[in-house]
Amino acid sequence: MTALSLGNFELNVQKQQLLFHASDGTQVLRKLSFREASILRLLVEAQGDVVENDILLNEFWSGDSIYNLNALYVFMSRLKRLLAADPSLSIVNARGIGYRLVLR
């Protein structure tokens, strides 16, 4: 699998790396956890469509208990903070349904 492009970022899921290309020409490489990289891959592949919480919970945790839902919130917060470096890109919460990646 090659790197997935999203805004000023490149995601390499296999290497669990997120590369940011800053406007000044510098590059910042971030190491992601397996779940962070995989969740971000699902959001990119959904191409702006909502990825439902149930899909995320069943894919990366074993069920939709309140503890797993809280873990999902934590992972999404981390990803939102990472992507904040590119103002044209954001993860939007579809309340009670799931999340989608928006490229402005």
Backbone structural class? alpha+beta
Radius of gyration: 13 Å
Strand fraction band? 25-35%
- Number of DSSP E strands: 7
Shape type: globular
In helices, the fraction of residues equals 25-40%
- SSE pattern: EEEEHEHHEE
Please state the average pLDDT score: 93
Distance between the termini: 26 Å
> Which residue ranges are poorly predicted, with pLDDT under 50 across at least 5 consecutive positions?
none
Strand order of the largest sheet: 1-2-3-4
What does the main sheet amount to?
A: 4 strands, antiparallel
Specify the number of helices: 3
Give the structure's gist in a few sentences.
By secondary structure, this protein is of the alpha+beta class. It is built from three helices and seven strands.
Report on the structure:
The protein has 104 residues and is α+β, with helices and mostly antiparallel strands. The protein is built from 3 helices and 7 strands.
Task: Supply database-style keywords.
104 residues, alpha+beta, four-stranded antiparallel sheet, three-stranded antiparallel sheet, 37% helix, 30% strand, globular
List the helices and strands and how they pair.
Elements: E1 4-6, E2 9-12, E3 17-21, E4 27-31, H1 34-45, E5 51-52, H2 53-60, H3 66-83, E6 89-94, E7 98-103
Antiparallel strand pairs: 1-2, 2-3, 3-4, 5-7, 6-7
